[in-house]
Amino acid sequence: MKKKSAYNVAIMGATGAVGEEMLKILEERKFPVAELRLLASARSVGRKYSFKGKTYTVAELKEDSFDGIDIVLASAGGSISKKFAPFAVKAGAVVIDNTSAFRMDAKVPLVIPEINPQDIQKHQGIIANPNCSTIIMLVPVFAIHRKNRVKKAIISTYQAASGAGAKAMKELENQARDILGGKPAKKEIFPHQIAFNLFSHNSSVQASGYNEEEVKMTKETHKILHDDKIKVTATCVRVPVYRAHSESIYLELTRKPDVSDIRKIISRSAGLKLVDDRQNNYFPMPIEASGKDDVLVGRLRTDASDPHGLWLFVAGDQIRKGAALNAVQIAEILCQK
Amino acid sequence: MKKKSAYNVAIMGATGAVGEEMLKILEERKFPVAELRLLASARSVGRKYSFKGKTYTVAELKEDSFDGIDIVLASAGGSISKKFAPFAVKAGAVVIDNTSAFRMDAKVPLVIPEINPQDIQKHQGIIANPNCSTIIMLVPVFAIHRKNRVKKAIISTYQAASGAGAKAMKELENQARDILGGKPAKKEIFPHQIAFNLFSHNSSVQASGYNEEEVKMTKETHKILHDDKIKVTATCVRVPVYRAHSESIYLELTRKPDVSDIRKIISRSAGLKLVDDRQNNYFPMPIEASGKDDVLVGRLRTDASDPHGLWLFVAGDQIRKGAALNAVQIAEILCQK
Predict the structure, then answer these.
(1) What is the CATH number of the domain that holds B53?
(2) Is the ipTM value over 0.90, yes or no?
(3) Which one of B152, B198, B241 has the shortest CB-CB distance to A286?
(4) Cβ B248–A235 below 8 Å, yes or no?
């Protein structure tokens, strides 16, 4: 992208949980915004947001919404991205898409800035943001992988309600309140009760037995690392937590890991924070990852039954690093070059 | 144990979550109880419980509480078992101990009735009930293991508050209510907020980096199976769920598993219920395992990257099969012989 002093930015899906966070992060990180356009569906038109002290009104997302826009941050759902991203590209914008619409498209780079920033420059108008579970797993796993090749990652997730949007977070709250009040829990967003319960991830299950979320973690890892040989297998689970995903990760490494070396690697890697205090039983927790940029990493220990095995437990904000922050980081790199 | 028409039974720790469930299960399963003695600490003396239509009053647990007792079901904490079990044995009773006090004692059988009932007869006065996470994992894993040897099990747990007792369940409820009311969560039992959060298991962390709960899962499996070669490595996590533990289990098997065979094995095994409906995204959930005897088993699928790998996801009632039910089942076998 041509270097400018400031860029015209549109947020597609500005009223969603991720869209709102994108706006906050653009302001927090002092992204050089010239014109700001907040786009959403007809029913959200007229909602107002404050950005750098000025008030902006949400406009309806239309095919001609992108005139003069440099960067579109998109998070309005896969079908909306599929429909509108081509119009944005035609209008000369670069779309950074947080949906799954284009992630596996060979022409679309899939980027985690801490891992493959170089892929950003290969874009043909669209850059995809990986799935939240992939990002939160892969930032710490890649930091280890670059020093000691990961042969296989076996992952069990503990995923927050936020991954299904702001309404799902509200459903967790409402269900908890109803259950505490002795009333039955109402289900609207999730297929099963989320409060005081957990369930296998609510994406559809394929013939292989894996759900879509689990398949994304494998395929997206291969694409981001440009390496189909690393084995990634996951079980994805929703838990009654608002907005940060946790993941229990077991790695089979090429060489025997040394935990103190791994601690140093985590401490020195961008986007990660070591939280690994055995004495005080203090490790990554979703409430502490919420609202933070870093993925928290702890429970580092080798497998007593296999010296090549390494456990870690991570927690990262699903809305920030899992979505909005990663997209804004891509925009920042895009504008630097 | 000498066969009788009915047995004199004492419950040690009768007012705890597990003690109360033991009483319920004795009645439900029509255990032949002659005399019933409910024992607890001084502060619970006088509490009343109904059993088969009669009212029983809690008496203080003392060294001379066991005269004439045949079977003691003990769940009052490890230090209490250590102190009082020897007096019960001296008085001629068999102690079925739900605490960790004697589990690794070479003279004490550690028993899951579905797996090693034959060990019950080797007792010298004390029989130990395994840890709840071990039981809920091992009943399904053993069913597979006996047909296709498990080389290694890699487990991530999603453990309910109940494992830390009735007060911990109440703490989850109170914290949820306070947070929903905009008040800070009060911590008394758990070291970290449990409502809308999760954290690494609250047992102490050893020099190896594993917490005690994780070490139990490995060592107890070895003892129950009389096999130190099976590799078991776990990450144990508390989640905001009341009383059923869930576990995400990855198995490395000797032969390539066939999922339809595994389904048959699970369906036909005592103590297990297959809940594996891919089309409806319906799998084991802790709210559905609560109050049930069976461990629910689902998400059965082979690892796409390794045909010897098999995933399963299980949920079991921590208070029932994880503790009280397993103990009563041991008592039933003890009395049959």
Answers:
(1) 3.40.50.720
(2) yes
(3) B198
(4) yes
